[in-house]
Amino acid sequence: MNRFVLVLIALLSWPLLAPAQSPRVGDLYARGLAGDKEAVSECIRLLEEILVTKPDDQLARVYLGSAYTLRARDRSFGKSKLDALHKGVALMDEAAAAAPKNANVLLTRAVTNEALPVFLGRRKAARAQLEELVAQVEKDPAALKPADKQLLYLNAGQAAQHAGDKKRATELWQRGLGIVADAKLTAEIKAALAQH
Predict the structure, then answer these.
(1) What domains appear along the chain, each with residue ranges and CATH number?
(2) pLDDT, tens digit, for every residue of 74-115?
C-alpha cells in the first residue's frame, strides 16, 4: 500500500496537532494529505505566516516541512519536486533540532520521514526517531496523548517491519493495541498484525 495512504489513514484518525495553532491549518493539512493540491499550497502559506509572527514555533515548522513533502509528492519529477522535498526535509530537521524533547514535533517528523519513498534514505532515521520516542514515552507517558501514542506504536511497528525486525514490530503493535484511544488506529494495528 502507498506509504502516503497509510500516513493519511493514521493522521486523519489522529487528533492533528496543527489545529492548536489554527483550525484552518489542521483542515488544510488533512485535505492535503488526501491529495488536495490547493489545500497543500494554502497550508504552506498559512504556516509560513505563523512562523513570521512566531519564529520559534517548532510545531508549525515541522508541519510546514511535512506540507512541503506533500507539495513534492504532487509535483512532476524535476527540479521543483526535488526543491520542495529538500526544503520540507530541512524544515523538519530544523524543528527537531530546535525542539529535541518535543514528542509531538519528533513524531510528526518521524511519521513523515517513514512515509517518504525508500530511495530517499530517510527510513533509517525515521526508525531511530520512532524508537527514541518509544523510549521517551515509556519513561514519560504524558509526553504524548493516548491517540498519539497509538500512532507512534503503529508507525514504529511498521518501521521495524520494513527493517526486517518482525519480532520488534509485533511487540510494538501489541503495545499499541493496549492503548484504548482511537478505533481507527486500533483497526490499523490489528490489520498490520494480521498481515504480519
Answers:
(1) 3-195 (1.25.40.10)
(2) 888 889 998 999 999 999 999 999 999 899 999 999 999 888
Convert 70-105 to b/e letters by CB count within 10 Å (16 or more is b).
bbbbebeeeeeeeebbebbbebbbbbbeebeebbbb
Q: Enumerate long-range contacts of 46-49, CB under 8 Å, 24 or more apart.
A: 46/22
Which of 76, 60, 63, 61 has the alpha carbon at shortest distance from 33?
A: 63
Q: Is 40 left (phi over 0), alpha (psi -120 to 50) or beta?
A: alpha
Stretch (H or E) spanning 55 = none
pTM summary value: 0.82
The whole-angstrom separation of Cα 17 and Cα 116 is: 20
What would the DSSP string read from start to end of 63-126?
A: HHHHHHHHHHHHSPSSHHHHHHHHHHHHHHHHHHHH-TT-HHHHHHHHHHHHHS-GGGS-HHHH
The pair phi, psi for residue 163, each rounded to 5°, is -85, 0
168, three cell numbers? 520488534
In terms of Cα–Cα distance, which of 165, 134, 131, 167 is closest to 148? 134
Cβ-based neighbours of 119, under 8 Å, separated by 6 or more: none
